[in-house]
Amino acid sequence: MTALQAVLLILVGAGGLAVAATRDPVRQALVASLFGLLLGALFFAFQAPDVALSQIVVGSLALPAMILLAIARTRARAAADRQREEPSE
Amino acid sequence: MTPRARLAVFALAAVGLAALLVWGLAGLPRFGDYEGRYGRIIARDTVPQRKATDAVGVTTFDYRGIDTLGEEFILLVSVVGVMALLRAHREETDESRARAQELERIRKAPLPSESLTLLGQTLAPIVLVLGIYVVAHGHLTPGGGFQGGVVLAAALLVLYLTTGRTAFRRLRAVAAFEAVEALGALGYALIGVGGLIAGAQFLHNFIPHGHSGLLTGGTVPLANVSVGFAVAGAIATLLSEMLDQDLLRSRGGR
Q: Which helix (H) or strand (E) holds B48?
């Protein structure tokens, strides 16, 4: 194992912990995005560039974007429901 | 169940899991040892057989092309599922009134700063070219239709996030994205049928494999392009559906 691989393995472990330890979903999406990038770098260091590319586009791009959009939709929906309940606003 | 009993059950399960994990890890091959057979066969035979240099791409789109067909239809079905869920929700409200309000709010929404717009307009074409490159060279270098397709859709996301009024035009683009996705999936299936017409099995690589460079791999680059279309269309459809009224309302409103 090269030093780069060892460092990346440790970083990926720390990154996974950071994702699990982040409580706020919006921040968690961003931390998960960073974690996806780290995982991509790890795959690249282990000579799997194809998988690394897939990991980067899905893990640090598509997935966080979908999570953020889903959170935004849920919050907007909740706000609209609240508004309907108290029409005097 | 009392908390104490729950803790006892958990401790028992955790010890069992830890024992299984240690047992499993002890049986792993040494670091860097590869005992499989197929990896070596693929690495040896891909370039002589197909002339294309990315063994992973050739495996995905040729040797195991049927798996990719399945994956493509999983993607199609998930997108259809998301759209069915989101649209069912949309019909609950008075559609035309909601749409009129939405357009009014987009018109009133503050525009993003000029520097942000400039950054987005500079980045989007670069991301687009990168996506096309990754799709077109899928059979030669790491990457391919799937990765490139997501990158292509990302160009759209950059435009949406940095130029406020693109959302305005987006309202009519969803139909185009759906068509792109469906055509991509259809193209892949047609490549498979082409193998049947050529007198071999489904998804047989029936196009001459060439010698070197971009025009090698037979059907592999074609399959990459169709998957690129399918994935870019799928992600763009999902993003457009998600970036719908509710989000715009919360953005333009208060």
A: helix B38-50
What's at B135, amino acid-wise?
A: V
- Residue A47 neighbours by CB distance under 10 Å: 9
* A1 contacts B54? CB cut-off 8 A: no
* Contacts A–B by Cβ distance under 8 A: 53
CB contact under 8 A, B239 and A77: no
- What φ, ψ does residue B67 adopt, rounded to 5°? -60, -45
Asked if the Cβ–Cβ distance from A62 to B146 is below 8 Å, we say no
Collect all residues with Cβ–Cβ distance below 8 Å to B111 and sequence separation of at least 6: B117, B164, B165
What is the residue range of A26's domain? Answer: 3-88
Total domains in chain A come to 1
Q: Using one digit for the tens of pLDDT, what is the confidence trace for B73-105?
A: 999 999 888 888 877 666 555 556 666 666 666
Query: pLDDT tens digits for B212-224?
Result: 888 888 899 999 9
Q: pLDDT by residue (tens digit) across A1-20?
A: 899 999 999 999 999 999 99
Rounded to a whole number, what is the distance in Å from the CA of A6 to chain B's nearest CA? Answer: 12
Report the residue count for chain B: 254
The complex's ipTM works out to 0.83
